[in-house]
Amino acid sequence: MQINKIEVSELVEDSLPEYKKNSVNRMLKLLIKSKTGLIGLVIVLIVTIIGIFAEQLAPFDPNAINPMLINKPPAWLEGGEFAHFLGTDNLGRDLLSRIIIGTKVSLIVGVCSIAIAGFIGMIIGLVSGFYGGFIDNFFMRLVDSFLAIPNILFMLVVLGVFGPGLLTLILVIGATQWVTYARLVRGEVLSIKERDFVKASRTLGTKDRTIVFKHILPNVISSFIVVSTLSIATAILLEASLSYLGLGIQPPMISWGGILEGGRNFLATAWWISTFPGIAITITVLGIIFLGDWLRDVLDPRLTK
Amino acid sequence: MTMENVALEVKDLKTFFHTEDGVVKAVDGVSFNVNKGETVAIVGESGCGKSVTSFSILRLIKAPGKIEEGSIIFENKDLTKIKESQMRDVRGNDISMIFQEPLTSLNPVFKVGDQIAETILLHQDVDKKEAKKKSIELLKKVGIGRAEQIFNSYPHSLSGGMRQRVMIAMALSCNPKILIADEPTTALDVSIQAQILTLMLDLKKEFGTSIILITHDLGVVAEMADKVIVMYAGQVVEESDVFTLFKNPKHPYTKGLLESTPKVHELEDELKSIPGSVPSASNWPKGCRFYSRCSMRLNHCNDNAPELLGDENHIVRCWLQNEEVVKQSEYAK
Amino acid sequence: MAKYLRKRLLEIIPVLLFITFIVFFLVFWVGDPVALMLPEDAKQEDIENLRSALKLDEPMLVQFGYFVSNVVQGDFGKSFRYGEDALPIVLERLPSTLTLAFTSMIIAVLIAIPAGIISAIRRNSATDVFVTGFSILGKAMPSFWLGIMLILIFGVIFKILPVSGNGTWAHLVLPSITLGTAVSAEMTRLVRSNMLAILQQDYIRTAISKGVKPLSLILKHGFKNALVPVITIMFLQISTLVSGALVTEVVFAYPGLGQLLVQAVSGRDMAIIQAAIFVVAIMVILLNLLADLLYKVFDPRIKYN
C-alpha cells in the first residue's frame, strides 16, 4: 500500500513538467492548425488596440458637426473623400472616427460587465456549493428564474427604473450573465467536496479558504476563461442591442448601436451610416467567438462536445 | 474439402485507418475460409483486429477506415468490389450480424418487433401483417414467451438477455447463410451467457447457418467452435480445428492465451498472463510482431517476419516451426 | 402524467413569485410615482390623498401584499401614457408578437433542420464548412443590424417589400426572416452536433448491417432519435426568440409587445412594463412546459415520475 502511494506521487511529479511543456506546445500547434483561432486572435488584438488608443487613432473629432460634409459617401464611391474614408453621417461627423471611438465603449461594457458577472457568479457558486441546504436551494431557484425569463426583459425593467447610461448598462448586463459562472463553480465545488482528500483535509481542520484556493480555483480557471470569452461576445451584442433601442449608451457618448440607430432613418440617402457599425460589431464578435472556440479546444477539452 | 463447401472466403484482407497520426494497419493481410454450417471462432486480445475483420466482411468500416486490399468471396461475388446497393441486399439477408452490446445496438425509439419486421420487409416480398406474424414466430423461436407482448416493447424495458435474444431473432429473420457474432455474450451476466450460447448452437443446427464468432473468451470457443483462428497484431497467427488447438497449441501467443484462461478442474493459485502489450498498429515491427512479448523468441525473429507454416489442418505463423531456423539461430534474451 | 403536470405547475410558482418580487422591488425602489402623476403645482393635501389612495404610505411588506393580490387579479394599474388598464393594452399586442414568433420559428426550423442534418452527414465537406460558417456568422451578427440590411436591400434598393408596420403577410416577411435567421444560427449548430452524435451510435451500425437504405437510415433511424434533442433545442431558443422579437419589432416598427415594452421603458410607464414582463414570462414558462410534455410523445424512454 505504502509503496503504491509513493509510486503514484512520483508518477504525478514526473509527468507534471512534461504535461506543462506539452500544453504550451499543444496550444501553439493548435493555434497554427486552427486558422480560425489565429484569425480570432488577430481580430481581438487589433480591436483591443483600437479600443485602447481610440482617441489617438481617430482622424477627426467624432462629435465635430460639419454642415458642409453632410452624408458624404465612403471614399471609394463617387463624391467620397479619402480623408473621410467611411463617409460622414447626417450631421457631417466622420463615420470612421465615430466607429473607432465606439470600439472603446463596446470593450469597456464587454469586459467590465463580464468581470462583474464572473465575480457574482463565483461568489454565489462557492457559497451555494459549500453550504448546500437552504442557501443552495435559494440560489438555484434564483438561477432557474433567470434562465426561465429572457435576460433582456430583466434588463428592460432595470433600465426602465434606473434610466439608461453606461454604468447602469454594465451593472445590468453583469447582473444577468452571472448564472453560467454560478453553475460552473457550484458544480466544481460539489464534485471536489466529494473527493476523499478534501473530505479528509476538512476533517483535519483545513480552512475552506485553503480548499477554495488550492483545489477549486485551479480546476475552474480554464472553464472560466472560456466562458468569459464567449460571454464578452454576448455582452457586446447586448450593449449594441440596448443602445440601438435607445436604452443603453446615451449621446453624446458614442456606441456602435447608437450610430446604427442614428442611420436608420437615412438608409435611402446614406446607407453607410448603419452599415459599417454593424460590420464592426460582427467582425469583433466573430473574432471573440473564434478565439473562444480555440481557447476551449486548448484549455478545456471536456467542454468541446 | 471442395469449393462448394465454402460459404465465405477471405483472402489477404487489409483494412487500414488513415488517422492524423499515421496509417493504422488494423487488419494486415488476413485470410481464412468459413465452410457451410461451420462455426469459426476468431480469438485474440482487444486491438488484434478481430472486430475490424468482422466489420470488413459486411463493409461496416467507417471513414477514416478503408478496405485497402484483398477480397471477400461470397457466392462468387467479391464483397469488397460489389456496388453499395448490392451490398445492402447481402446485409441482413445473406450475412447478418449481432453485436456485443444489445442495449445500444437496438434503436431505442422503435418497438423491438418493428425492428425485426423491418429486416423482413427489407429483404422479403411480404406485407406488414405477414412480417409481423413472422417476427412473432421468430421471437418464440429464440425462446421468448409472451412474444406478442414483447413485440410491442421498447428495448429499454427488456433485460439484457432478452435484448440479445431479440438481436438474434433479428439476425436470423431472413435465414442468413452466415451469422457474424461480435462478442455476443461479453456484455451479459454470466448466468445468461450459457443460455445465449446454447440458443445459438440450437439455431445453427436448425438453420444450418455458418457462424463467425468473434471473442476473447476461450471458454466460449471451446463450447462453440469447430475451427479457431487466433489473431495477433492484425494477422492470423494460428489456425486449426478446435480440438487440435486446445490439445496442441503451437504459437507461443496461443499458448500464452490458453495459460491465462482459468480452468475449473485445476486448482492453480495464479493465472499466468502474457507480459507487455500489443505494439502500435501504426508502426508494426519489422520482424515477428509478437517478438517483444515472446518467451521463446529467437534472434532470427527480430528482423524476419514469419510466414504461415504447416499443413492444411494446422497453420502457425512462427519461426519455431521452421527447423532450419531453429538450428541456426539462438534464443534471444 | 397528471401528477407530473401538477408538480411542474407548482414549480412555476416560485419563479413567478421571484418575478413579482423583482418587479415590485424595483418599482418600490424608484420611489414615488405620485410626483409623476400630478401636476408640479399640486397641493400637499392632494399629494397625501393620492398617496393613501395608492396605499403608498403603508410599509413595504404590506405594499407587496397589495401588489401580489392585484397581480393575481390581473390588475397592474393604469398606464400613464394610455390612461387605461395596462393588462388589456398588453394582451392586445400579444397576438402580433406570437404571430411573428411563430413564423420566425418555422423559418428557423426550415433552415436549421435540413442544414444541420446535411452538414452532419457530409461532415467536413464544403457544404459542412459553409453551414458551420453561416451558423457562426448568424451568431456574431446583431439581429437588428441584419434587419436593417434587409430593409436596405428589399425595401430601399429593390422596393419589393414593406419595411414597417403590420397588417398583411408581406409585413411579416422581413421581420420573420430577420428573427428566423438569428434563431436558426444556434439551432443549426445544435442539430448538427446532435445528429453527429446519433450517427455514431451502435444502433445505426445495426441498421446498416440489416441492409437499411441510406435515406431511411438518416430519416427514420437517425432523425427519430434526434427529435427529442431537436425539440429541446427548439424550445431552448424561446428566450432568444422572445428577446429577438422585442428588438426586431422595434426595427420594423411592428406593433407587438416588444415595441410597446421598449416605448414603456423609455417613458417609464411602470404599469405597462410590469404587465408586459408578466405576460412574456408566463408565455415563456408555458412554452417550456409544453416542450417537456412533447418529449414523452417522441421518446418512449422518458417516464414522468
TrEMBL record, chain A:
Q: Where in the cell is it found?
A: Cell membrane
Q: Which CDD domains match?
A: TM_PBP2 (cd06261)
Q: What is this protein called?
A: Peptide ABC transporter permease
Q: Where is the ABC transmembrane type-1 domain?
A: 103-292
- In what way does this protein cross or attach to the membrane? Multi-pass membrane protein
Q: Which InterPro entries match?
A: BP-dependent_transpt_permease (IPR050366), MetI-like (IPR000515), MetI-like_sf (IPR035906), OppC_N (IPR025966)
Q: Does the keyword Transmembrane apply?
A: yes
Question: Record's Gene Ontology CC terms?
Answer: plasma membrane
UniProt entry tagged with the keyword Ubl conjugation = no
- Family label: Belongs to the binding-protein-dependent transport system permease family.
What keywords is this UniProt entry annotated with?
A: Cell membrane, Membrane, Transmembrane, Transmembrane helix, Transport
| One protein family per Pfam | OppC_N
Where the protein is mainly located, per its record?
A: membrane
Q: Which GO terms describe its biological process?
A: transmembrane transport
Q: Which parts of the chain span the membrane according to its record?
A: 36-54, 105-131, 216-238, 270-295
From TrEMBL, chain C:
Q: Which family does it belong to?
A: Belongs to the binding-protein-dependent transport system permease family.
Q: Which InterPro entries match?
A: BPD_transp_1_N, MetI-like, MetI-like_sf
Q: Where in the cell is it found?
A: Cell membrane
Bilayer-spanning residue ranges: 12-31, 100-121, 142-161, 167-185, 226-252, 272-295
Looking at the UniProt record for this protein, which Gene Ontology cellular component terms does it annotate, in alphabetical order? plasma membrane
Q: Which Pfam family, any one, appears in the UniProt record? A: BPD_transp_1
Kindly provide the name given to this protein in its UniProt entry. ABC transporter permease
Domain annotation ABC transmembrane type-1: ranges: 94-291
Stored PROSITE patterns: ABC_TM1 (PS50928)
Q: How does it sit in the membrane?
A: Multi-pass membrane protein
Organism this protein belongs to: Ureibacillus manganicus DSM 26584
| One of the GO BP terms on file | transmembrane transport
User: Keywords, A to Z?
Assistant: Cell membrane, Membrane, Transmembrane, Transmembrane helix, Transport
